[in-house]
Amino acid sequence: MANTMTNAEVKRLVIQHWERRAADFDERPNHGLHSDAQHQAWREVLGRLAGPDPLRMLDVGCGTGFLALLLAELGHQVDGIDLATEMLERARAKAAAAGLTVYFQTGDAEAPDAPDGTYDLVVERHVIWTLPDPPRAVRSWLRVLRPGGRMVLIEGSGGIRQGQEMPAEYAEIYGQLPFSTDRSSERLTAFLQDQGVVDLVVEPLMDPVLWGSANTGQRYAIIGRKPRYRDALPMRSA
Ligand SMILES: C[S@@+](CC[C@H](N)C(=O)[O-])C[C@H]1O[C@@H](n2cnc3c(N)ncnc32)[C@H](O)[C@@H]1O
Description:
Elements lengths: L6 H15 L14 H15 L5 E5 L5 H8 L3 E6 L2 H14 L4 E4 L12 E7 L8 H11 E12 L11 H6 L11 H10 L3 E7 L3 H4 L7 E7 L13
Parallel strand pairs: 1-2, 1-4, 2-3, 4-5
Antiparallel strand pairs: 5-7, 6-7
């Protein structure tokens, strides 16, 4: 498809899609939490990825609050941003029902409205594929991270494929979403490295309990870090 839409027009269709999907989003086995075993498996993964110390975190494209709420349960201070108000409404309702404090607000994952260096950790799950300008997004995540802060992207190799039946909104825009059709961990890692993310590590997330199914394709977390100031200094000879 010809590249004819502005990024604002692409995002208007993305928002339209997720407003429409919000009501039953959590019902899918790979979206919501459907058993104690699934809940425990995600707590274990996120506990390990985040580490034991309480951190200030930003969940970009938080949707109905999947990561944000689990991370708040684990004792972290989490902000969640999304462009779909219906998704955010559900996230807020789930936080209230669970007695958790998470600050959910409308915000663009490509341009979080936070001062430089605010967060220890930026997280996302299943979001980079639906962004029209991933380099802008990663630059903004590096900006809001403190030096040495980390980002965790939970992603999968699946995606929209040409010829496959796809939701109406995405049929119009997938050609303008650079990661809509190929999100291999190798491609995403190389991209993040190009954006200046360092110490990149890929952790497979293939336990079927996490996704409610064994048939999930490649699932993984990519963990990277914003360089500390001293990382950027030239090596001194002895
Ligand atoms: C597949 S859902 C994932 C939701 C959540 N991260 C999860 O793991 O359940 C994608 C989410 O990204 C949000 N989204 C898409 N583009 C966005 C953008 N530019 N800024 C903020 N949120 C965005 C959508 O509204 C939707 O809630």
